[in-house]
Amino acid sequence: MVRENEIRENEVQITPPEPTDAGLTFIGRISTPWTSRMETPRQGRHDGPLCRIEIYEPWVPALKGVENFERLEILYWLHQSRRDLVLQSPASNGKIHGTFSLRSPVRPNPIGTSIVKLEGVDGHVLLVRGLDCLDGTPLIDLKPDRTLFKPIAPPQPGDFQTDENLPCA
Length: 169
Ligand code: SAM
Known about the structure:
Bound molecules: S-adenosylmethionine
Region (Disordered): 1-25
InterPro entries: TrmO-like_N (IPR023370), YaeB-like (IPR040372), YaeB-like_sf (IPR036413), YaeB_N_sf (IPR036414)
Number of strands: 9
Oligomer: single chain
Strand content: 25-35%
Family: Belongs to the tRNA methyltransferase O family.
Largest sheet: 6 strands, antiparallel, barrel
Order of helices and strands: EEEEEEEEE
Protein name: tRNA (N6-threonylcarbamoyladenosine(37)-N6)-methyltransferase TrmO
CATH superfamily: YaeB-like
Domain TsaA-like: 24-154
Mean pLDDT: 95
Radius of gyration: 19 Å
Number of domains: 1
């Protein structure tokens, strides 16, 4: 069941610590067909509706090269989410799950991620399929799908280190 902001049977709410200012900047805005959480897909699909990602200045030049990737990873801020549940009942049936074992939008820092199919780039606007967020959701970041990306910078020593030659402390 999709929630607005209600708490369900057996869910556990905490009082979150004071926020730390991470200096987060919204770099754009996502336009989708969905204005209600009750209608928004739980996960986007690559044959889903075309959505627009508008990039704000001064970040537009940072789009150079994105057109070379068939798929992008999009990070967005699920701005209407509550942030104070540690145990949740996604099915509203009293069965609970830890927040970090879910992809629920309700989390301490409500970051959503989707791998989208890039359909086009029109100046400062990306046209994509595969999103699952409300119209007007703020954009945090975008980057190539990691399965398509080969590092451009030369390798570093850590790239060759295995657990055998450098176990974690
Ligand atoms: N794909 C992302 C992920 O896995 O990180 C998000 C998945 S989350 C389950 C998607 C749901 O978040 C939607 O079905 C909707 O109920 C909710 N949602 C979407 N946009 C939101 C927003 N801007 N604020 C709060 N909730 C939102």
